[in-house]
Automatic annotation (TrEMBL):
<keyword id="KW-0812">Transmembrane</keyword>
<protein>
    <submittedName>
        <fullName>Uncharacterized protein</fullName>
    </submittedName>
</protein>
<feature type="transmembrane region" description="Helical">
    <location>
        <begin position="7"/>
        <end position="25"/>
    </location>
</feature>
<keyword id="KW-1133">Transmembrane helix</keyword>
<feature type="transmembrane region" description="Helical">
    <location>
        <begin position="69"/>
        <end position="89"/>
    </location>
</feature>
<feature type="transmembrane region" description="Helical">
    <location>
        <begin position="37"/>
        <end position="57"/>
    </location>
</feature>
<keyword id="KW-0472">Membrane</keyword>
<feature type="transmembrane region" description="Helical">
    <location>
        <begin position="101"/>
        <end position="117"/>
    </location>
</feature>
Length: 129
C-alpha cells in the first residue's frame, strides 16, 4: 500500500514538472534575466520541500515528525536563498566581505546546524522510547 507521504511527494514533483513545462510552453524566457533563478527556486522548492511543507501545515506526522518537517523546510529556504544570493552577488560585497563568500558561509553553517539539530532530536527520541 502506498503511504500518504509518497502520494504527496509524487504530487509535489508532478507540480514542479508542470511548472517547468509551463515555463517552457509560455516562453517566459528562462534563458535571460532573473527568470532562471526564479524558476530554479520554484522548481527545487516544490520538488524538495513541497511535500514536507504541505504535510507540516496539516500537522501530519506520517513517517517524519512535524517538527522535523518544519526544520527541513526552514533549512531548504535558507539554502535556496543563499544560493540565489551567491548567483546574484557577482562582485558585490557587504562591508569588505564578498557576497558569494558570505553565501557559502551561510550554506555551511546552515547545513552543520541542521545536521546537529536533527541528530540531537533523533538521539532524544531514541532515549525516550
Amino acid at each position: 500500500m502506498v503511504s500518504r507521504d509518497t502520494i504527496v511527494h509524487i504530487a509535489s514533483v508532478t507540480i514542479g514538472l508542470f511548472v517547468l513545462a509551463l515555463v517552457e510552453y509560455t516562453g517566459i524566457g528562462p534563458e535571460t534575466g532573473p527568470a532562471p533563478v526564479a524558476v530554479f527556486l520554484l522548481f527545487y522548492g516544490l520538488v524538495l520541500g513541497g511535500a514536507h511543507f504541505y504535510l507540516a501545515l496539516r500537522g501530519d506526522d506520517g513517517m517524519i515528525p512535524v517538527e522535523s518537517r518544519w526544520r527541513y523546510v526552514a533549512t531548504l529556504v535558507v539554502l535556496l536563498a543563499a544560493g540565489a544570493a551567491i548567483f546574484y552577488g557577482g562582485g558585490r560585497a557587504i562591508a569588505t566581505i564578498p557576497l558569494d563568500s558570505l553565501g557559502y558561509i551561510v550554506l555551511v553553517v546552515t547545513l552543520v546546524a541542521y545536521l546537529l539539530t536533527e541528530s540531537m532530536s533523533g538521539y532524544r527520541a531514541s532515549r525516550q522510547g
